[in-house]
Specification:
265 residues; binds fe (ii) ion; alpha/beta; Purple Acid Phosphatase, chain A, domain 2; 8 helices
């Protein structure tokens, strides 16, 4: 792929936290699928650097889980990004497969995760890290979804109570950012207490039609509800990236790859 667009979302904080906060930006990367924009992803890196982000949030599927997993580009990008920014990473279904099926992939999954952590990536596996960004108290959570959540033909129900079992309770006095690969459970993420959920996975619905939006997901589901964009529910928000790469259906129509910038105001 040769080009991507930059999509910018303005994230409004709750009023009590707004008083603490100065404006800042963060990057959301999702579904790169080992694609490089320019040599060594120089074009993508330049676009990220020009935003001067305080953090980079990664919501999975940076690699491709073919029988010979493709992960060299993803590794090189993580190596570069961690030299300049704190990078928070939650796995997608491709990382999950490579990590869990050692009989197919050997040690490739472990190698990938060991390598990115050696670069300094904060890998969040049903865990969190508490950070302050310009005096604003933020907790970044990473939810590793059960494998059934990626099933093709029957929707798996995920509840806020299950998320609490996996993560514990959200922090009451802090801004809770939840990184998760699949956006389909937004109601549960919001009910659990995520102030801002970041996700990807659906590649914008592959083919986008006027008024109807995305047509199909990489798992062959039609007209996904949360295909890309910003969604709101009871004061909680979710941003879904259309992703930077492709797999399964190597096609995008009216749906360019995108780099997402989050502007906190
Ligand atoms: Fe995915």
């Amino acid at each position: 792929m040769s080009e991507f667009k930059l999509t910018r979302y303005r994230i409004r904080m709750s009023d009590d936290l707004r008083s603490l906060q100065q404006p800042f930006s963060a990057i959301l990367l999702s579904d790169l699928h080992n694609v490089s924009y320019g040599d060594g992803n120089s074009v993508l890196l330049q676009a990220i650097r020009s935003e001067k982000p305080e953090a980079v949030f990664v919501t999975g599927d940076m690699l491709v889980s073919t029988n010979e997993p493709q992960m060299d580009v993803a590794l090189a990008l993580m190596d570069e990004l961690t030299k300049q920014y704190p990078v928070y990473y939650v796995e997608g279904n491709h990382e999950y497969k490579v990590r869990h099926y050692a009989e197919v992939y050997g040690g490739d999954g472990e190698h990938f995760f060991e390598a990115i952590q050696s670069f300094g990536v904060h890998l969040l596996k049903n865990s969190c890290e508490r950070i302050d960004i310009h005096r604003m108290p933020v907790t970044v959570w990473g939810l590793e979804l059960p494998w059934q959540c990626y099933r093709r033909f029957r929707k798996y129900e995920l509840t806020a109570a299950q998320i609490t079992e996996l993560l514990g309770e959200p922090d009451k006095e802090r801004y809770n950012i939840l990184l998760v690969h699949h956006p389909i459970y937004f109601e549960a993420y919001a009910a659990w207490g995520a102030d801002l959920t970041l996700a990807g996975h659906l590649h914008g619905g592959i083919v986008r039609l006027p008024y109807l939006g995305g047509v199909i997901t990489p798992q062959f589901r039609l007209f996904p509800k949360y295909d890309r964009g910003i969604f709101k529910r009871g004061g909680k928000q979710m941003v879904v990236s259309a992703g930077l790469g492709s797999h399964s259906i190597p096609l995008r129509i009216n749906n360019p790859p995108e780099l997402v910038v989050l502007d906190y105001i």
